[in-house]
Write a structure and sequence with these properties.
- The protein is of the alpha+beta class and about 850 residues long.
- Helix content is about 40%, strand content about 15%.
């Protein structure tokens, strides 16, 4: 598989995703952001690195023959029916363990670190009475995933002995094991116990588990800490104290401490690095670890080339066709040159790994050396790396084991100076000030964008004491003398806002009194405030008389937090809605969603590769802690399930032409085409099982389909309708709107054109639908317990409801009423505001008053009820 093509596909998918939810109204900002994203500002060029080849030592059978290892080791440590060929560092570790010296192995990924302690442990147990049921080795891992992997590896090795009970026993003791398995291990302690440091801590305090550590019941000879570099800071101190307690509890002064780590220190000479590792290991183990016992990797060239490589030879090879033959490929002078620049570098008496560089940097080096154009060099290096990854040495290792390190940034914000839109400086680099202009200091503030219309707003703090605005970053909290809000910099031509437009503020901000329409006291502070602001952030509440200052000042409107209305599109919000749902910024895609998308993109591209085996198509994701891992896995499963459901809806549509509420669930289930075993607890093809399973699955799917109709409930994952992939109509509504005699009971509806009536009526019904005011069995609260019970007793994850999930009940719209669940049809409601506006009735010079609106609404509701829509 071409790793470079995979990277390009994944980055392209992520690029489209990031741009998909950025709605920017200002053309200059939109072009700037699009240009920066195209340059890869959020995803730098990948770093290229070659996994090096390791110097080989002797085979396990050779060490058995010379008497270093027990004869049974030759049968255990075999692969493909051959004795395992050891690396130099593995052989060195075996000799160090035989001398009973503590040691730490610091070699790279894939270097077989586990064998550096498994071989000595198993050899020691075989030589020292393996018949006793005692814990002889304790191997501690930072993650259960590593324990599970190692458990399978040991099982496979001991499986080489054939059927029957092996002389070496091992067990896994973590929080994942059931109680009966733990009790079995307590009654019959294994020779090798795999655990994590949290479980080891608990073993020290539980009487039933003293059998694993106590000096009178166990004979602990080995203590292994895998991934030693993870134990830093407070966790490192906790683990080091735990190790001291374990050493004291087991009472074995000859306890051999072993550590492994792919990364411990960087920089410095080889001796300095080994000394630093020894110092850290001594602190963790609580015993002296010598520098000479730090075993590092011994690297070698993957491709040997006789003689010196000259620029002329490299220049000539750039014009030569890349051979498909292994023998011809390794004779190409560019092959060893690539290894020396991307893989290893020669030191005095050993090879060291190269610091990763980008493909462009490597091409630049080759270009300077040969005088060939950079793009030509880049393309040739790319092709050689790919071909080298396909060709194999005699030991089946690749000529080039290529690794790409792709760093993807979540992104920050778009920052802009507080100036006219044509003059402001734009950047994606977070900083406080931009370059001065005409001797004036220019403040930079982050921008956010209305999710509906894309109008830009500056995020700021207002400092009343100094009459200035300061930038407000994402994690800033309000201070005593500052309070946050948003600035809209207005234009002289086509202004967005004006003080005379106060009546255009949301209707819920006002109340009708005898004196007329009055602003409610709780909304007075949210009325847009006019300021004249200089680029340095200093503001004036009146036009500036000083001609010099006035020239640089800009008219702006300040809206205190929370954001309650967009001055551009008029969208109104309540105080409970989070700012994230109202305003977007460059980094608003969400970390979990971004991670899930990158994983899915990788897996999708790998599945398209015919040369990859099915079992090789995997993704491994690391997180900081268990909570994040649980959240991410749950998010991934939820994302995939929603995507699967939406795909089924999309697929079901062409098959039926048009779907309606009576057959949508059945059609989607048919489109999913899942076997019973994937969703039913008890799959079967006889009796009542098939029918019962299908009915439960259909009810679950029906609820999820209707549930997904809610607009905006997934901001970064809009539904099919929002994406323009699904169109929902109301059957026969256009015909109803054409019959003028049906609308004669209201003067507005009677004089409207059929097109206007249809537009308004459809908007009315769509608003009810988006609010889930639907007459569906799955939304009737009285049925929810029965539905949940039927689904959860019949189906299995992920096609079930969570135990604490509250199913959504269908909404009711009412003119008034005391039920807090009712949605309002009052004139000041969002729906009422639209039905009264000139947007609904273009020929009206003003909005409908409350009395006219009530008459119109009653006629509309009555007619839609008689037509069967309500």
């Amino acid at each position: 598989m071409n790793i470079f093509n995979l990277r390009d596909h994944v980055i392209n998918d992520y690029h489209q995703y990031v741009e998909s939810f950025l709605n920017i109204r200002d053309e200059r900002i939109r072009d700037f952001v699009s240009g920066e994203l195209s340059k890869g500002v959020l995803w730098s060029d990948p770093l290229v690195q070659l996994n090096p080849s390791y110097e080989t030592g002797r085979m396990v059978s050779d060490l058995v023959a010379q008497g270093t290892l027990d004869p049974l080791c030759e049968k255990i440590f075999r692969r493909n029916d051959k004795s395992i060929q050891l690396y130099h560092h593995q052989e060195e570790a075996i000799y160090t363990a035989a001398k009973r010296e503590h040691y730490v192995l610091t070699t790279g990924t894939g270097s077989g670190k586990s064998l550096t302690y498994l071989i000595p442990i198993i050899d020691h147990i075989l030589k020292n009475d393996p018949s006793k049921e005692q814990v002889r080795a304790l191997i501690v891992y930072p993650m259960n995933a590593l324990i599970n992997s190692q458990h399978e590896a040991i099982k496979e090795l001991l499986g080489n002995l054939g059927d029957g009970k092996p002389p070496i026993t091992f067990g896994r003791y973590t929080g994942q094991e059931k109680q009966d398995e733990r009790e079995r291990l307590q009654q019959h302690p294994p020779h090798i116990l795999l655990t994590n440091y949290m479980m080891l801590e608990l073993m020290m305090s539980r009487p039933a588990e003293r059998v694993f550590l106590d000096r009178t019941l166990s004979k602990l000879d080995f203590l292994v800490l895998d991934e030693l570099h993870t134990y830093t800071g407070r966790q490192g101190a906790d683990v080091s104290m735990l190790v001291r307690r374990v050493r004291q509890r087991c009472g074995n002064n000859n306890l051999l401490c072993i550590g492994t780590s792919a990364t411990m220190v960087t920089g410095g000479s080889r001796d300095e690095q080994r000394a630093a590792v020894a110092s850290v290991a001594s602190k963790i183990f609580g015993t002296k670890v010598k520098s000479d016992s730090i075993i590092d990797e011994r690297l070698k060239r993957s491709v040997e080339y006789a003689g010196d490589i000259t620029p002329a030879m490299l220049r000539e090879s750039l014009t030569r066709e890349i051979s498909e033959s292994y023998n011809d490929f390794v004779k190409n002078p560019l092959v060893p040159w690539i290894e020396e620049n991307f893989g290893i570098q020669k030191e005095t008496d050993f090879f060291r790994r190269r610091v990763p560089i980008t493909l462009i940097e490597g091409a630049k080096r080759l270009s300077e050396l040969t005088g060939t154009d950079g793009p030509v060099c880049e393309e040739r290096i790319r092709r050689l790396l790919h071909k080298g990854s396909e060709l194999r040495h005699q030991d089946n290792t690749p000529v080039f084991a290529v690794r790409l390190h792709q760093f993807i940034s979540k992104g920050d914000s778009v920052y802009a100076t507080i100036e006219d839109s044509e003059d402001r400086h734009l950047t994606l680099n977070g900083q406080r000030f931009a370059e001065e202009k005409d001797g004036n200091e220019r403040l930079l503030a982050p921008l956010v964008f209305c999710r509906i219309c894309g109008q830009e707003y500056y995020q700021v703090f207002r400092n009343e004491h100094e009459s200035s605005f300061e930038p407000r970053l994402a994690n800033d909290v309000e201070r005593d003398d500052h309070y946050g809000g948003y600035l809209l910099v207005d234009k002289e031509k086509n202004p967005v806002w004006d003080e005379s437009r106060i009546d255009d503020l949301p209707d819920q901000w006002f109340r009708e009194t005898k004196k007329g329409r009055t602003l409610k006291s709780e909304y007075k502070e949210f009325v847009p405030q006019r300021f004249f602001i200089t680029p340095s952030g200093v503001y004036h509440d009146k036009p500036i008389k000083d001609a010099v200052i006035s020239k640089s000042a800009t008219l702006a409107w300040f809206l205190p937090m929370p954001f309650l209305t967009c001055l551009s599109c008029g969208t109104a919000y309540d105080k409970r809605t989070k700012e994230f749902a109202k305003l977007a910024q460059l980094s608003s895609e969400g970390r979990s969603t971004a991670t899930t998308l990158l994983c899915i993109s990788n897996l999708t591209q790998m599945k398209k590769e015919e040369t990859l085996k099915k079992e090789s198509i995997k993704m491994l994701s690391f997180t900081d802690n268990r909570q994040d891992a649980s959240l991410q896995s749950g998010h991934f499963n939820d994302f995939v399930q929603v995507g699967l459901l939406r795909s089924a809806i999309y697929k079901a549509l062409p098959e039926n032409g048009v779907l309606d509420h009576s057959d949508i669930a059945t059609a989607v289930v048919r489109a999913l085409n899942l076997p019973q075993s994937t969703y039913a607890q008890n799959a079967g093809d006889i009796g009542v099982l098939p029918k019962r399973n299908l009915e439960a699955f259909t009810e679950y799917v029906e609820y999820r389909v209707y549930h997904d109709l809610r607009r905006g409930w997934r901001i970064v994952q809009p539904n099919l309708e929002q994406c323009g992939l699904l169109k929902i109509e109301f059957a026969g509504l256009e015909d109803v709107c054409r019959k003028a005699d049906l609308w004669q009971n209201n003067e507005i509806l009677a004089t409207a054109t059929p097109e206007t009536r249809y537009s308004v009526t459809k908007a009315f019904l769509t608003h009810l639908r988006h609010s889930l005011a639907l007459d569906a069995r799955c939304f009737e609260g009285i049925n929810h317990e029965a539905i949940k019970r039927k689904v959860n007793q019949t189906l299995k994850e992920p096609w079930i409801f969570d135990d604490d999930e509250r199913l959504i009940e269908g909404k009711w719209f009412a003119w008034g009423g005391n039920n807090p669940q009712d949605m309002s049809l009052h004139p000041i409601s969002v729906l009422g505001k639209y039905l009264r506006s000139s947007r609904a009735w273009p020929w009206l010079n003003s909005q409908l008053d409350a009395e006219a609106y009530e008459r119109l609404l009653r006629t509309l509701v009555d007619l839609l009820h008689r037509a069967g829509y309500l």
